[in-house]
Model the fold of this input.
Amino acid sequence: MLPRALIFDLDGVIADTIPLHYQSWLLLAQDLGIPFSPEDNELMLGLPRRECLAIFLRGQAVDEKTAQDLMNRKNRYFLELLDNLTPADAAPGVAALIAEARAEGLKIGLGSSSQNARRVLEKLNLLSQFDVVGDGLTVARTKPAPDIYLWAAARLDIPPREAVVFEDSAAGVQAGLEGGFRVVGIGQPRIVGRAHLVVPSLAGITLSALRRHLF
Done:
């Protein structure tokens, strides 16, 4: 029975790390004496570090060394905040859905723009549950290009049409749709409304519900 694989985004899907990213960008903004708002952070959802930095700097040009220094400093702040993450911080319903899927023999993958994906999964005690982990260093073209999800599906040996992608960003939803996956959008319809199924969270979401709504 379909689906044969579940492929998850990380930030905002597996764990609510978005506030940690916001706090780390805010600390960097305070260092530099520039404004940074929750709305700015929302624009970064699903994007790689370099694109996030461009949003953070509001298009101000910087040389590559400065850019790398700023991204590294932001990442240090994020990793310090990440130290407090525990398995209890997994997003509602995620662990139960993964456990049900593995019990039924489905394959589990991750397709994230985060370069800290493995560390986050380790902190949540979920890394062993994933058959493949694609992160911000895996593919050249990042979301909204479908490459990270196509890469994960290929490593899982599952056709995209037989897999479900879980996303909380507009860029991620677009990536899943362009890749030919069934897509579950998590969060606000104004952001993920193009997904095949939109839910406020994965709490209570089961494989039977996915089959009923997506296949």
Notes: The chain has a mean pLDDT of 95. The beta strands are 5-8, 107-111, 132-134, 163-167, 182-186, 197-199. The chain has two domains: 5-16+87-214, 18-82.
